[in-house]
Amino acid sequence: IAGITQAPTSQILAAGRRMTLRCTQDMRHNAMYWYRQDLGLGLRLIHYSNTAGTTGKGEVPDGYSVSRANTDDFPLTLASAVPSQTSVYFCASSPSGRASYNEQFFGPGTRLTVL
Amino acid sequence: DQQVKQNSPSLSVQEGRISILNCDYTNSMFDYFLWYKKYPAEGPTFLISISSIKDKNEDGRFTVFLNKSAKHLSLHIVPSQPGDSAVYFCAAKATISSGSARQLTFGSGTQLTVLP
User: Fold this and answer.
1) Are the beta carbons of A87 and A63 closer than 8 angstroms?
2) B83: distance to nearest CA of chain A, Å?
3) In the Cβ-directed half-sphere of B33, how many Cα atoms lie within 13 Å?
4) Contact across the interface for B108 and A41, Cβ inside 8 Å
5) Model confidence band, residue A98 (pLDDT cutoffs 50, 70, 90)
6) Low-confidence residues in chain B, pLDDT < 70
7) Burial degree of A115 (CB within 10 A; 0-12, 13-18, 19+)
8) Element (H, E) at A10
9) Radius of gyration, alpha carbons of chain A
């Protein structure tokens, strides 16, 4: 593993189903993030975690939950998927969530379609 | 209401010429700005950043200019190359804030096409 991996690459899901998007990083970064990318809206933050054991809500957290049991993994769960959650989801990490000036590193994304 | 705006969804430039991508922001608390580049089917990658204590930062062919009074920043690519064709996202953060307000806010992106 090098950097950030996301799984699955893509998924078609029936509305009402539960889905977990996986994200793993091997850079020992403290902070991790989940974004969704929608046409005309750019990247919007769903949830973030400044360090293992803590999480916070971003701009669009409704319908999503996250956990951060360890440094490397940051899964995103849709408890009951709805069509408006059709999007491309990106996981990202940064060395520190508290440092002012550090860049974020992104995974390759998961394309999710909810029918 | 979007706090970071990229009003040009697309831009086409001839190879060798200058590409200028623009970004406007409304939140006066933003004091750190970044540009990300995204190819299709890949995640965004960091390109260049600038702190509000500067008005210019340069890295090779890429230069970012910040005009705090106008709440405007721009990315200049000189000379433009076909490999620069990608979506460019502007992002901003308020480093003195806490919690979710401290996180990056992204613009909607500009698709740059560099024609050979």
Assistant:
1) no
2) 19
3) 35
4) yes
5) low
6) 100-101
7) exposed
8) strand A10-13
9) 13
